Amino acid sequence: MSKESAEQKNIIVGLDIGTTKVCVVVGQVKSDGSINVIGIGKAESRGIRKGIVVNIDQTVDAIRKAVNEAQLMAGVPIRDVYVSIAGAHTKGQNSRGVIAIKNKEVSLEDIDRVIESARAVDISLDRQIVHVLPQEYVVDGQDSIKDPLGMSGVRLEIEVHIVTASKTSVENIVKSCNRAGLNISSLVLSQLATSHAVLAHDERDLGVAVVDIGGGTTDVAIVIEGSPWHTCSIPFGGVNITNDIAIALKTPFKEAERIKLDYGSAQVRPQDENSIVEVPGVGGRDPKRLSRYVLSQIINPRVVEIMGWVRKELVSAGLEERITSGIVLTGGTSQMEGIGTETAKVFGTEVRKGIPSRIGGLVDIASAPEYSTAVGLVLYAASENPFLFQAGVEIHSDGPQGSGSMKKVAQKVQKLFGEFF
Questions:
Q1: How many structural domains are present in the chain?
Q2: 399 torsion bin: left (phi>0), alpha (psi -120 to 50), beta (else)
Q3: Side-chain-side CA neighbours of residue 343 (13 Å)
């Protein structure tokens, strides 16, 4: 195998298809397991609404543009990608499985069987399972076990978090990627990928809520003891804030977006009364002038509403008291001034902004919150198959979930090291 071919095997590509933009991150796994970002691409997204493909051609065009930009920067062709999936069509639920242990010692076969037992849940014919994520194992009543392999016992139980998605939505994402000339190595829930990029290990252990405020949706993952316990997607995001500004100020959407990015604040502060913003009119009408104080009064209610919905999710899941590490905000809208302060008021807990970490290379670009999911996809892929990428072994995929034989081997090796998330 040539040096170039070997390097190609160590390339991982994350493709984040969002409502407002498509982001691509190309990562190269080094011999020590670290990851360098060697290529980044971004394109405006027009064919996606709240995580759902509404126009195939426009989605394909955006994917191609972002991929072309990334592969030109990286200097390598892009063919296989890890793709994010998000939106209100994704649903998370917890399930439990139980089996009798063969030979009174937990084997890999027993672990496979108990996971299959847990995934045997009733879902409608128009939905499919995307993830089955182990939370904890129980052996003969002893709980909080992360790796039961080799333990003695007669009864093995498991708690898992199952993520399902609309089959139609999945098919349209797959079709868009295929038409753009790409193969999907795996579909990954957006907030699961994001969690890999922005969370510290101690946060994942203590309990934390990741809130990814995108353009069309706000995606949430609650991670406790290293595993996801609740995931959801709220159908509001940065686009709604922009719409509020456009309607209230009677200005074109593009101008409202510019005003939001340049002058927007989620926090209403009297001192902003002296800061003046010029607002272009529609249809050639004269521009208007208003203060940042007035602008923040338009933005604040929507931010509080979005965070209120997130808090309701935590309360309904019974997990509000378990997020000891607080809230981690990420996504493009998380960059807005004052949003951390307002979020802290809603939740009454600590809030920090999360940016992609644990990467090298083009860090100055890739560390922007808007690339959190794309970077997370690369980190997710590397952690899911740690030895295959370092060894330059090709992963053969049987479908969108990449359930080929080599991947199954990697997953079993992964279990040996207790790497569940």
A1: 2
A2: left
A3: 26
User: If DSSP codes are grouped into helix, strand and coil, which group holds residue 237?
Assistant: coil
Put simply, whether the predicted model's pTM sits higher than 0.85 gets the answer yes
Neighbours of 155 (CB within 10 A): 13
Asked if 66 contacts 43 with a C-beta cutoff of 8 angstroms, the reply is yes
Q: CA dist 267 to 97, 194, 355, 406, Å? A: 46, 26, 21, 51
Degrees (nearest 5) of the Cα angle 402, 405, 410? 80
Taking the CA atoms of residue 41, residue 257, residue 265 and residue 218 in that order, the dihedral angle to the nearest 10 degrees is -60
* Strand residue runs (E) in 192-280: 208-213, 218-224, 227-234, 276-279
379 inside domain: no
Phi, psi of 414 (to 5 degrees): -60, -40
Residues 261, 154, single domain; the answer is no
Domain end point (choices 166, 186, 213): 166
| Whether residues 305 and 348 fall in one domain | yes
Q: Are residues 244 and 126 part of one domain?
A: no
Residue 235 in any domain: the answer is yes
Q: Same domain for 242 and 308?
A: yes
User: Same domain for 205 and 344?
Assistant: yes
Return the number of other C-beta atoms located less than 10 Å from residue 7's C-beta: 14
pLDDT along the chain (421 residues), means of 10: 50 96 96 92 94 96 98 96 95 97 95 96 95 96 95 97 96 98 96 96 95 95 96 95 96 94 95 92 85 96 98 95 96 95 97 92 91 96 64 34 39 39 40
Which two tokens mark 329? 């905000």
Same-domain status, 136 and 227: no
Find the domain containing 294 and state its range: 201-354
